[in-house]
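Deliverable D4.2, example record:
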Amino acid sequence: MKSAIYSALILAFIFCNHSHAQQMNAPDSPCKNAVITVAASNCFAMEWKKQDMILNAFYASVLKHLDKEDGDKLRIAQRIWLQFRDANCSAEYSLYDGGTGGPPAKLACMEAVTRRRVLELHSMYDWILEK
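Output generated by the structure prediction step:
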């Protein structure tokens, strides 16, 4: 009888657990194999820093090729994007109600959103760098 109750509780936990969602479990996540919270946080922090460096280098390179007006527009867009990134990832963090899944979820979000911004800027500006 006890084993049936434990089995039912385990199944309920598995099917009610929301940890299968969010950026950290996305198919293109660089840290899918990190299952311990600390390992996931460390992996996503490292990957986010890497993407942030790539973003900053590409952004600086693009600005060198733009005239003042286009550069100013990109700077404005980038400031707004930073506000979006931070608000979006804070919203994802809050889904964990202060639990231990919150920090890796936020870092995963920061990494994923930054990685997508790099791709977005490449699709917008690669042709200018190729001139």
